Amino acid sequence: MAILIDSRVPLVALAPMLLCNYGLHIGAAAAAFRTVRRRNTDDFEGSRTQTKDPWLAVFLSVIFPGLGHLYLRKWVAGIGFILASLLLELLVGKKVWGVIPTIGFNMVALICAYYAAPERRESERTLILVAATFMGLFWLASAPIGWATKSYVAEAKIATGTSMAPAVQKGTRLVVNKLVYRWREPAVGDIVLFVPPAAGPSVDDRTPMMKRIVAIGGETVQVHNGSVQIDGQYREPEGTPRQLLGSTRPVAHKIPWDTYGVTEPHRVPEGCYFVLGDNRVNSLDSRDFGAVPRKSIIGKAVRIYWPLNAPPLYGEPAR
Question: Has 163 been annotated as catalytic?
Answer without folding.
Answer: yes
